[in-house]
Amino acid sequence: MYLQRLAVGTATAALIATSVVAFAQSSGVKKQLGKMTCEDFLAVEDNFKPKVVYWAVARAQSGKPESAGINIEGTEKMIPVLIDTCKKAPKESFWEKVKAEVKKLEKKV
Questions:
Q1: Tally of CB atoms within 10 A around 81
Q2: Residue-range domain boundaries for the chain
Q3: Which listed site, 24, 65, 91, 101, has its alpha carbon 20 to 30 Å from 54?
Q4: In this structure, are residues 73 and 12 in contact, taking their beta carbons and an 8 Å threshold?
Q5: For residue 11, what are the CA distances in angstroms to 2, 33, 69, 96, 106?
Q6: What is the pLDDT of residue 89?
Q7: Model-level pTM?
Q8: Please, are residues 94 and 86 in contact by the beta-carbon 8 Å criterion?
Q9: CATH label, 2-108, candidates 3.40.50.720, 1.10.890.10, 2.60.120.330, 1.10.10.10
Q10: What CA–CA distance (Å, rounded) separates 14 from 101?
C-alpha cells in the first residue's frame, strides 16, 4: 500500500512539474514559484490551478519539484482554501500562502 502511494505520488509530481513547465512556455508567463503572486495564480485557468497547487505543495514539502510523495487528500482540500485566500489578498506571495497551508497540513498528519 505504501509503495503504491509512493509510486503514484512520484508519478504525479513528475507529471505536474512537466505540465507547469509546458504551461509557462505556452502562455508566455515565466515566473519562478517564489515570485508568483496570488494574482498570478488566480489568472491561471481554473482547470489548471490544481496542477499548480500540487506542484507547489510537492516543492514545499521537499524543497525540490520532484517530491517522493504528497498527501493527495490534504492537497485537494487545500486548493479551494488557497483560491479563497488569494482572492482576499491578490498582491501577496502565492508561495508563502502554499507554505503556510503545507505547515497546517503537516500538523494534522
A1: 14
A2: 2-108
A3: 91
A4: no
A5: 14, 20, 9, 25, 21
A6: 95
A7: 0.65
A8: yes
A9: 1.10.890.10
A10: 21
Question: Average pLDDT of 83-88?
Answer: 96
Buried b (16+ CB within 10 A) or exposed e, 37-66: bbebbeebeeeebbbbbbbbbbbbbeeebe
- The rounded distance, in Å, linking the Cα atoms of 100 and 83 is 14
pLDDT at 107 over 50: yes
The one-letter code for the residue type at 52 is: V
- What mean pLDDT comes out for the span 32-37? 84
Is residue 63 left, alpha or beta, with left meaning phi > 0 and alpha meaning psi from -120 to 50?
A: left
**What residues are paired with 37 via a beta bridge?**
93
